[in-house]
Amino acid sequence: MEKTSTDTLPLTMISSEKQETVCIFGTGDFGRSLGLKMLQCGYSIVFGSRNPGMSSLLPSGAEVLNYSEAAQKSDIIILTVHREHYDFLTHLTEVLNGKILVDVSNNLKINQYPESNAEYLAQLLPGAHVVKAFNTISAWALQSGALDASRQVFVCGNDRKAKQRVMDIVRTLGLTPLDKGSLMAAKEIENYPLQLFPMWKFPFRLSAVLCVFFFFYSVIRDVIYPYVYERKDNTFRLAISIPNHIFPNTALTLLALVYLPGVLAAILQLYRGTKYRRFPDWLDHWMLCRKQLGLVALGFAFLHVLYTLVIPIRYYVRWRMNNRTVVQAIAKKENPFIISTAWLSDSYLALGILGFFLFVLLGITSLPSVSNMVNWREFRFVQSKLGYLTLILCTAHTLVYGGRRFLDPSTLKWCLPSAYVIALIIPCTLLVVKFILILPCIDKPLTRIRQGWERNPKFLESALNGKTDL
Amino acid sequence: MEKTSTDTLPLTMISSEKQETVCIFGTGDFGRSLGLKMLQCGYSIVFGSRNPGMSSLLPSGAEVLNYSEAAQKSDIIILTVHREHYDFLTHLTEVLNGKILVDVSNNLKINQYPESNAEYLAQLLPGAHVVKAFNTISAWALQSGALDASRQVFVCGNDRKAKQRVMDIVRTLGLTPLDKGSLMAAKEIENYPLQLFPMWKFPFRLSAVLCVFFFFYSVIRDVIYPYVYERKDNTFRLAISIPNHIFPNTALTLLALVYLPGVLAAILQLYRGTKYRRFPDWLDHWMLCRKQLGLVALGFAFLHVLYTLVIPIRYYVRWRMNNRTVVQAIAKKENPFIISTAWLSDSYLALGILGFFLFVLLGITSLPSVSNMVNWREFRFVQSKLGYLTLILCTAHTLVYGGRRFLDPSTLKWCLPSAYVIALIIPCTLLVVKFILILPCIDKPLTRIRQGWERNPKFLESALNGKTDL
Amino acid sequence: MEKTSTDTLPLTMISSEKQETVCIFGTGDFGRSLGLKMLQCGYSIVFGSRNPGMSSLLPSGAEVLNYSEAAQKSDIIILTVHREHYDFLTHLTEVLNGKILVDVSNNLKINQYPESNAEYLAQLLPGAHVVKAFNTISAWALQSGALDASRQVFVCGNDRKAKQRVMDIVRTLGLTPLDKGSLMAAKEIENYPLQLFPMWKFPFRLSAVLCVFFFFYSVIRDVIYPYVYERKDNTFRLAISIPNHIFPNTALTLLALVYLPGVLAAILQLYRGTKYRRFPDWLDHWMLCRKQLGLVALGFAFLHVLYTLVIPIRYYVRWRMNNRTVVQAIAKKENPFIISTAWLSDSYLALGILGFFLFVLLGITSLPSVSNMVNWREFRFVQSKLGYLTLILCTAHTLVYGGRRFLDPSTLKWCLPSAYVIALIIPCTLLVVKFILILPCIDKPLTRIRQGWERNPKFLESALNGKTDL
């Protein structure tokens, strides 16, 4: 679009006779893909190139000029050039003055340079309005239209008007702009596409530690112990039996760890008598990745279910049952039916199924499109009430599974109790503490603290002033 | 819309020299969180407070003034104060005149006051442009950025310009504004965050009733009857066997009830000979919660699958099979293989699996993000064609499960047939009626009615006038 | 923001005294529903009708005039009339001149007319600004608010200003506009609601072919062969055993076919020495429906899991195990426990479970709302790394399932190996080729080609010019 004096129509509503012209510096893959997409959406495109006569593969309908000429054609220039080559722009200071310069670049490593590419650009050309955008979109996605990964385009810049112009373009291309504020956010935006599941790191590491612990614990009890005492080769248990000890115990522990930070926060608030002091960083981080922790726990629970359901198909199980029956038949001995055992067996299965069912429900409601449909009251009802019910059911499932063998000395091997006894420690403690916290005598002051009341109002004025506000 | 003259810039594109200033009345949690978020998105914030000198905890960069001074700094004021304290605004009538006043308040109960807070505010200050917004967003979500629940911000107000301004702010904060019309919608918007799954109430109650019915029915047949006649203690069946009667029967009945209102509506339209008369309210409401009914049915089906798959792990089942084999071996009697039994057993399992598979597919396509990717033809194909196929498979699964025992007098206990016979009544009736409805001689007039034709055109003019229109 | 002088308002911000008036031509279902929705969102509506005095059922608050009068009331006219009746508009050429005319029509068949309805309209009325919109939204959805299918409204038109106006209306109604460019896109937009899963056609046909092949292959080996040689009636295997051969083999083959086009593309790029030549059309199409192929494969895998888990409940399996035990008991012969068999049995189950688990994870990340939350690096990590791991696990599962029987002559029937041997051909070949491709000596040139390097740079200038650009 040519420079508009202030006496014309609003910028987003170009008079129909003229299309908005956008200039793209650089004719690499990304520049070409973006140019093609913008042409399709009704923009007029001018490419700026070092050797305009030699550029090829450009989308038909686009003009190619040298940098300076191209820049004069539009007041918005999209820069699809590597940061290392930004120097050439210093020769164009004059023509770029007052124009909108869109930085789409990415780096190869997180925090590769002391300042973000966009901030570096803004230093090079103080007269231009630098806007960071489009760096999260891939050239291939633009070309194929298969925007399977994010449609979100993070936009930041110091000039609200320039930012608004760029966000209008983003919207016209069928993408979703998200304003991240001033150019100071550019560093974060540039790091974003280089991240690999940052919120999942802590849950993955934690579950890896738990898995390794339960693995060695089970190997000692189920493989090494029988080998030492009975010379029995139990190594085949490594394929199914031992994973089916690791997965449920890890899942239960992780599920308890989802609700532990909430309880710790409540205790801290009770102790401090105020909610207006920040939690320690580790607690903050823990609270922010509870959803990920819960989903990892759900993964382990799902594996546990599958590992359990294949039990009757296993050769080992079929052999053992066949063998026991044959031995009994030869001895002409029938088994009596013990009702209490039937009760225990059916109860732990039923508790496990119900717990897993609620767990799957929790997982479904954490899908972005589902959680986006519910209001806060509903979301908290599901995540808190249903979450605790899930934890209670899963803990009860494990307790009943233990049943009469629970802490029975005959199940100890080298003084080690079964793995599920270890896994029960955190959930049981948590549930007891939570139960104490919801006793009226403790719940009341806590609720008051959460509504803004303070025991030792250091921030008296705020307490006075803000207590009537939302 | 009239053509505007061309001598000013649009409101959303502020000249870059000055940031837009927004005033926030109230320094409670929500006001502070909103202020911080808006500062981050490039707004300039002025807090209005009773005691500006004593306010603390406010985000750095924000100014704090008394109400009157703060209001003069901006033409848009966000009011984060409880409704009970709105009176103080009457002293500011003059300074608030012509300004945009955003009401973000919520109540504690649904329909707590005769009029909505926003309408009450508009009555207090007739000169201000009141806009309702932001009441569905929590302070915690704004602070942490973890907008797991809805990103949708419902906006309503009588002044389109004021509403547009507020919607621009909402969009800039990365949220999604949704225009709900005039201030008359404020009541609904204020009730929204207080609701707890309103569309799920009817399905939950209905399934609770069905569960209770099938529970007592099964207890009478499977626990009380054997106790009375054989003094057998079957109580352990309460854990798995009886739930596994309740769940599939409830699921099948609910699934049929998903398709029943559609059939009733068709019969009603055929009877009335027009589609231009409203359905009774109960039918309307039933039709609107079909999706929820179906999802509840899927939940029960999922539980039924899990309860069925654990059967071979149950102590009771293992004991029974072991015992039978031992008895046979002692009697030296081999069982003959009955091919027809193998056919029946495998068929009902296969039908059940295929029905469950389609049911899960239906559930997945009802996820908001999936259903948003399909067009109407595809959506109706899945929900109607696949839906009926699911119902047919599940009904057939139950019929074949019954197999030869179906209505066999020996299965009657106190004249009560098995629970699945009861559960088959609605689906079988429905399928027969549906089959009649798709007979050409009935389908043809129905299709014509649905295209706007009327048998007794009371609304003759409309039929004449509109029949060529979409 | 400072107060703006009041002598103009931007186009989107109508002065509050006057509501924007929109005219709707046609009083059919769609026109009435749209009118009602727009009234609720604060627009003023005028219906244009042939017989304004005789129109009924119209939403209260709307005016009804004849076409010409109605058109004069607004500069935006929404045309809800079938294409066959567009002729009447020619009488209104003058009054429609310069106005925005929104075409919402759909046809009954794909490509029913040589040109799209919107283009036809633009030819009829060259002076009007024709915009195509709203054709993907159903009247019922507008009325009930249950927008379960797409909320996306595709918009196209040659006039940017007119398009922008229509997109503002779309947004105000709570829908999501998507700019598809000039009016040339109207044909595609009109065909869209008539499509039935176009991307799924190839995957469905392919899997149907595979299913039929594996069906007949299994029937020959498992039903016809035993009947011919042993006169055994194995037909009951058609219900579960044979589907449980068809499903896993189809799933494995389809999963391999998801990754085959990527490998073929890499070989083609290596052979051509450039990435700047288009792939053949069949390869392009294949690559674009990989996601659908993968999801169909996941469906078959899911069915395989269910069919496998019901094995121990089947009458046939229970009878066989019971019979074997009875025979053994009568013969007083105990089975020895073979550790290697236990290892094989447990390993193939464990590999299958882990493969299925990763497969489900892949499926979940392909949900639109989930894939929209991840960046490109994460998306490619999941779809490529995790995808190959899934393929390796599933192939290993099948290999170990074969175990010692693999290609054992005794398993050949009429020289036909078991079905899983056939299903292993493509995955094993693919994995070997992929392994060769990631050898450093081959991976290096491939990576350079993908970064833009060319072996025989026909497009030398582009290579020179673009290589420093993104």
Helices and strands in order:
The structure is a homotrimer of 470-residue chains.
Chain A: E1 21-25, H1 29-40, E2 44-49, E3 63-66, H2 67-72, E4 76-79, H3 93-96, E5 100-103, H4 117-124, E6 129-132, H5 139-144, E7 152-157, H6 160-172, E8 176-179, H7 186-191, H8 201-230, H9 243-272, H10 281-288, H11 290-309, H12 315-330, H13 339-365, H14 368-371, H15 376-402, H16 419-437, H17 440-450, H18 460-466
Parallel strand pairs in A: 1-2, 1-4, 2-3, 4-5, 5-6, 7-8
Antiparallel strand pairs in A: 6-7
Helix pairs in contact in A: 8-9, 8-11, 9-11, 9-15, 9-16, 11-13, 13-15, 15-16
In a few lines, what is going on in this structure?
3 copies of one chain form a homotrimer. By secondary structure, chain A is an alpha/beta fold.
Characterise the protein shown here.
Chains A, B, C: This is Metalloreductase STEAP4. Chains A, B, C: It catalyses: 2 Cu(+) + NADP(+) + H(+) = 2 Cu(2+) + NADPH; 2 Fe(2+) + NADP(+) + H(+) = 2 Fe(3+) + NADPH. Chains A, B, C: One of its GO terms (molecular function) is electron transfer activity. Chains A, B, C: Its cofactor is heme b; FAD. 3 copies of one chain form a homotrimer. Chain A has 470 residues and is of the alpha/beta class. Chain A folds into 2 domains: 174 residues, Rossmann fold (3-Layer(aba) Sandwich), CATH 3.40.50.720; 269 residues, no CATH class. Chain A contains 18 helices and 8 strands. In chain A, strands 3-2-1-4-5-6-7-8 form an 8-stranded mixed β-sheet, sandwiched between helices. In chain A, helix 11 crosses helix 13. The longest helix of chain A has 30 residues. The two termini of chain A are 46 Å apart. Chains B and C meet through helix 6, helix 11, helix 12, helix 13 and helix 14 of B and helix 1, helix 5, helix 6, helix 11 and helix 12 of C.
